[in-house]
Amino acid sequence: MRLPPFELLLGLLLLGTLNASADTPLKETYAESFEVGVAVQAAQLDRAPESRLITRHFGMVVAEYQMKANVIAPREGEYDWSAADAIVAFAEANGMRVRGHALLWHQSTPDWFLAGGDPAAIRARLETYVHDVVSRYRGRVFAWDVVNEPVGDGEGPYRDNAWYRAVGKAYIDWAFHAAREADPDCLLFLNDYGTERKAKLERVMGVVADLLDRSVPVDGVGHQFHLGRRQTMDGIHEALDAVADAGLVSHITELDISAYNDPGSCFVNRTGCEPELLDDEIAGFLAEQADLYHAVFEAARIRPSVSAVLTWGLHDGQSWLNNFPLRRTNHPLLFDRSLKPKPALQGLVD
Ligand code: 9MR
Questions:
Q1: pLDDT (tens digit per residue) in 154-184
Q2: Ligand 1: which atom is nearest the Cα of residue 68?
Q3: Residues 6+ positions from 195 with CB-CB distance below 8 Å
Q4: Once rounded to an integer, what is the mean pLDDT over residues 202-226?
Q5: In the predicted model, is pLDDT for residue 56 greater than 90?
Q6: Is 68 in the pocket of ligand 1 (CB under 6 A)?
Q7: Cα distances (Å, whole numbers) of residue 347 to 21, 155, 275, 314, 334
Q8: Residues 295, 301, 306, CA angle at the centre, nearest 5°?
Q9: What is 194-216 written as a DSSP string?
């Protein structure tokens, strides 16, 4: 019997592999090591092509902005749960888990929380808010980012935000204690960006150690991991190890990989930002991005301390990075603008 030419056999084999990988849900690929999630917006859950991708590839959702205080409680004593409820209901209807984000973030704090400046009043408002939100979703939101981005970028360990200026570092303790009281079984996280950089990691771990010393109930650290092109892996490994060494859980909470690697000036006054990728540069970036996504997922897979990895959005068209630090087409996520899987997704499920 004559065998078909080697090239043909190889071609058929490759085709088979590609088909198998395109069919494999991302969440199943990593099911033995960690859960895979995605940041969503309530409106997209009603759009069939997007919601199908979400339920197929992810086992967890987090609200990109609709569970923050400025959306839930724009005015004192008045709650709007509509979007948050819709996201939690979608997750429950589809057997998915919900990560709560975020009880307290200086950028989404409505003015009424801090009005008047009296620390006792501020504490009471914060505790009431945290209690009301956490108890509404008790047993349904399995983990909360209790405080988001409390750590500074240069100055002392604490970020010099309106909360810190009003009451010092105590606001962090109050939020964690109130969350624990409202749901003793929920995992409580301090979430921050830049832990892949040594100096920031040291500050984050210093703040965490200080909280643990005073028996503040912190269970884990959320690493946002908003990464850029040319990010190396050392800092990622160090960040995950540092949290494990402190005896805590890590979640990778807001993973995305920007096509740009801007200098600090771009973030300060939008000078020196990298120019928009040309069409013939995109494929090269997507290949680099696939390698980096794969390396980050591997870093999570080999560590028992990492129990969840979430991307900060479903597809490139939805990402905040198209508008930050300036308006520029970006390609940071696992699906492209037409919802097609990118090389990064293929690389992960292969
Ligand atoms: O991506 C989010 C964007 O859609 C919202 O408008 C914004 C304000 O709510 O928050 C963005 O998400 C941020 C996250 O909550 C905390 N880390 C940085 C994220 C990007 O700014």
A1: 878 999 999 999 999 999 999 999 999 999 9
A2: 9
A3: 201, 204, 221, 223, 224, 225, 235, 239, 242
A4: 98
A5: yes
A6: yes
A7: 9, 40, 27, 16, 10
A8: 110
A9: -TTSHHHHHHHHHHHHHHHHTT-
